[in-house]
Amino acid sequence: MSAPVVTRFAPSPTGFLHIGGARTALFNWLYAKHHKGKMLLRIEDTDRERSTEAAVEAIFDGLRWLGLDWDGDAIRQFSRAGRHQEVAETLLAQGKAYYCYATPQELEAMREQARAEGRPMRYDGRWRDRGPSEAPADVRPVIRLKAPQTGETAIDDLVQGRVSWQNENLDDLVLLRSDGTPTYMLAVVVDDHDMSVTHIIRGDDHLTNAARQKHIYDALGWPVPAMAHIPLIHGPDGAKLSKRHGALGVDAYRAMGYLPGALRNYLVRLGWSHGDQEIFSTEEMIAAFSLENVGRSPARFDFAKLENLNGHYMRAADDAELVAAAERILPEVGPARGLPDALDAVTRDKLLTAMPGLKERARTLVELIESAYFIFAARPLALDDKALGLLGNGGRERLALVAEKLAAAGEWTPETTENVVRETASEAGVKLGQIAQPLRAALTGRATSPGLFDVMAVLGREESLARIRDQLAVA
User: Fold this and answer.
1) Membrane-crossing residues (predicted)?
2) 142-145/174-176 β-pairing
3) Annotated binding-site residue? 146
4) Taking the model in full, what pTM does it have?
5) 114, exposed or middle or buried, with CB in 10 Å at 0-12, 13-18, 19+?
6) What are the start-end ranges of the H helices in 429-460?
7) pLDDT band at 50 (very low <50, low <70, confident <90, very high)
8) Residues labelled as active-site residues
């Protein structure tokens, strides 16, 4: 019986959970769920100068918002430094690693020679076969692995296929620095082994690390986990994804008004395919996901596709859930748009009533909130330039014509208010829009809005008539 599948997501807490990292976490999560296994979370915080607790919390928050849970407690890599040192010293005792006393000046000379010859820097192995008795007294050594110097190192990658490296091009990597702290390469191997990780799914920028890490596994006599190196995400122009393309933190996408389900669905289709299917429920993703259908070419990030997909999710969402989602981002997006940072009970009810019309037009929660401006706006409304234009050139006079008839309307429903506006336009011998557009401007402060008569129903008789009176009072 094969061992249960164990994957891991291992971000460095030196910044936000960026979109590429979120996709890597998603692929690990889906693979584990598909095989009824586990996904572990490891915070690789060995870079003490750049790692911050705020970044750790941002990673936790981003994963939770995306709906990606992990099994057990998150592991902090730095807390395992003693175990990493123990493994390095074991290799040293077995003659599979050695003390290297190369000085910073000697290493810089190697770098300069490599640059002059147009090749990558490689440590030349000068301390590989020398004993500590020859060591200079004033140099604290590092511990280096005795890597194979001939032949090749190969892995059978589950995405990239067979990948091989000539060992003569790979040098003896450092395991422990001169201050006794472990390097990334050693820590990753030891942690993956101790956590019983069976599958390493990560970006293909780690592909060259795979050869070096395999050297460590082989020296320790440990089995090498299956590896899958997934292509990076590029921008629409084919260049490496940058901030101008959308290489932002997951928290930024939340603030831009994307729904977690939509972002999850978009990310799964970046580099993975399942026939022509574009829309996946979480259950469908788990059932269908396989590494065999991950492509080898970089995926291209496309904001237009993400917005369209998000619009689909919004139209399908429960109205009350959308109100709650909008409330969660209001503190971030409301004040900058002249809107409140929270809803009172009355405004919340109005937003819920308006939601069927609002969500049909909006592609993001931010667009939805902006189109709901008429609900939040305080009297007298601040009109934008287009709305002011609609109330000029006779617009206020036509508004006055309909105001009296609306005040006399028996009921206040979308049907009755529409009949009043149509009758007024007919009696005045003008087109419907010549009455409806000034009315829209007076009620919403904008030239565009959800359906005018739905707007009037949401606002109610008293608020609607009061807003109309405000505009008629303008000289």
Assistant:
1) none
2) antiparallel
3) no
4) 0.90
5) middle
6) 432-444, 452-459
7) confident
8) 243
